[in-house]
Amino acid sequence: MRPRRVIVIGGGLAGITAALDCADGCAHVTLLEVRPRLGGAAYSFQRDGMWLDNGQHVFLRCCAAYRALLTRLGSEHRVRIQPRLEIPVLSPGGMRAVLRRGALPAPLHLTGALMRYSYLTPAQRLSAARAALALGQLDPRAATGTLGEWLAKHGQDSAAVAALWDLIALPTLNLSAAEASLALGVFVLRTGLLERNDAGDIGFHMRPLRETLGEPAQRVLGEAGVEVRLGVRAERVERAEGADAVGADVAVPRARSHARGSDSERNTDGLRVRANGVEIEADAVVCAVPHERASALLEPLLGAEARRWTGLGESPIVNVHVVYDRPVCDLPFAAGVGTPVQYVFDRTAAAGLSEGQYLAISLSGADREMECPSEQLRERYLTALSELFPRAQDAVVHSFQVTREHAATFRAKPGTEKLRPASGTDVPGLALAGAWTDTGWPATLEGAVLSGHAAAREVLGR
Hints:
CATH superfamily of the largest domain: FAD/NAD(P)-binding domain
Radius of gyration: 23 Å
Number of helices: 14
Largest sheet: 7 strands, mixed
Strand order of the largest sheet: 8-7-16-17-18-15-19
Distance between the termini: 16 Å
Strand content: 15-25%
Shape: globular
């Protein structure tokens, strides 16, 4: 019996995961990626002799699937997880606070952090604790409206939301509490903070993403027998009943691989992918591209169902990269309150910088910043950094870069849950993967990996 032939479209985390799982299931797998690299939305680029990441893709200790993928890629030594959740919170004028979990069982492990949090008044701290406990009792499947609306009904004023709740909502949901889905907000807060005392410990990538994800994935996929074809755009997916199996190659450079199986057999009931003008046939296809792209690619097969996915919308992330001639910040990362800086990370060592300091500002839900010229962002954020770190006032800026991901994630607004499809489709052999599918998680590294596992189970099971 010949191996099942699977085509995976998309070389992000979802596609990488699906391809590895299918190869583990003895399938003959071909992965098509339009870019000249793997990693999808988690990638590095080179500027001024340094490798910079397009975003600060942190994860949590509870992200078990993503951590397992790191282990599979041999990259666990390139990340670091806090021994205990600890978030320094800064504001202009030198005020500092720390949100640090305790050792008590959840949710009591957060009691000390809230009671000492100086950005809230004593009354606000007690109110926030009551709201957190009430939030933990909600069923995400029954939650409607926005997280902000629910918080307001439970005594959280705008100051408390800005100083506490948005510190969680923005980086995890890529929207402020005022806009974000209550259902997804409940999931994040319960899973990351309220069910296990160590679940929310933060993980950081200590090396550029290309070293942690893209390059190791290409190596491991090749070792697993997956044929990786880079620089290949999938143009169409269609049924291929009774068609001859592919014997032609896509005429582009491809990664070194050791593909299993033969392409000389006849496909009696499968799918056909047209890529770079060449038709490739398979028994199954995993579509692991962003939802807008998947909608356009699969509408001829799935019709209205595929068109619905465009309703997921998009939410941008902007990163500001600043290199100073000297160290100005003594923290590995920090959150900001009362400042345009949402989160700032020291990426000096990760970028291989031997002198000075490289700080990266991560801005989630960054609709306004997407439209702002770089010179305005430069003025705004250099001023904001100097207000948080006084030593920056006398430092020389060697480099200032802005990266913009206009469609970094789907827009996690109320009603999103109904638009996210399952991995299986009505077309036999066609499965979906991507953080936008119905994983239960928001658009995260963990959600992407979980979706890849689900898609592989779907196509291998059929």
